[in-house]
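Appendix B, record 7
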Amino acid sequence: MEKREPKNRLRRFTVVIEQDENGYYVATVPSLPSCYTQARTLEKLAPRIREVIALCLAEQQPPRMKFVALEQVEVGV
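Structure tokens (predicted):
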């Protein structure tokens, strides 16, 4: 009987993308602490975030979370 490799299962992650004061796009993955990357364009950011998620998953298992909402909140400073 032939052994079969298990198929890679896909996981879905919420990614927050913001633009910093220098124009760089910064992507963070809230469910993976210290999982972030940046790029000058959104086109360059997409493959980088997939790469960094794979690297983070090699080190930690994220909790199963479901995206509910994203809000911007203003506070006085």
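Remarks on this record: The longest helix spans residues 42-59. The CA atoms of residues 25 and 42 lie 7 Å apart.
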